[in-house]
Specification:
heterodimer; A: 114 residues; mainly beta; seven-stranded mixed beta sheet; four-stranded antiparallel beta sheet; B: 112 residues; six-stranded mixed beta sheet; five-stranded antiparallel beta sheet; 0% helix
Amino acid sequence: DSGVTQTPKHLITATGQRVTLRCSPRSGDLSVYWYQQSLDQGLQFLIQYYNGEERAKGNILERFSAQQFPDLHSELNLSSLELGDSALYFCASSAKQGFATEAFFGQGTRLTVV
Amino acid sequence: QQQVKQSPQSLIVQKGGIPIINCAYENTAFDYFPWYQQFPGKGPALLIAIRPDVSEKKEGRFTISFNKSAKQFSLHIMDSQPGDSATYFCAASMTGNTPLVFGKGTRLSVIA
């Protein structure tokens, strides 16, 4: 158990809908990272927050947004969903701000858009 | 410049064999090279990581070999066991706030 909790584990929704994925980082970790994993693209970095502030942005679509709350949990919001958004979404956390450090991944949320 | 190319895509070895997974990168500014292991239904977990000031690092049965001049690094699993069957990802980053760039993964099957 990595100590990172993601909910829900599975989500099935229709095209055009909006969903929210939730992540609770390991106790004490200030950095939260979101990744998308698909069969053809592998693991793609989406966005990082550190202590409530956005620190790095990757290949995140404009339809997607995220935030980190004062209690350090984070939410990833996906809107106007398309079939191609079906993927595994992982949250990871680390104690430090940078990426050159051990990050602990949650078990992921499997999103299926139908 | 930001890509990390990983090979092979899949690998089958007998128990006790030494699977080797290779990665190549272009960006010479990368200075952190981790390997992640992912079991089905789980998130990736850090296995071992290396920085370019050393050419080899061992942790238990797992060894990273690093060739700075060739811009390549590889993972060797000694005395592989069926429990090592998983997908392995190499990645690269640099000091500072540069996101990890992952390879596409290698699905390893260790058969008894």
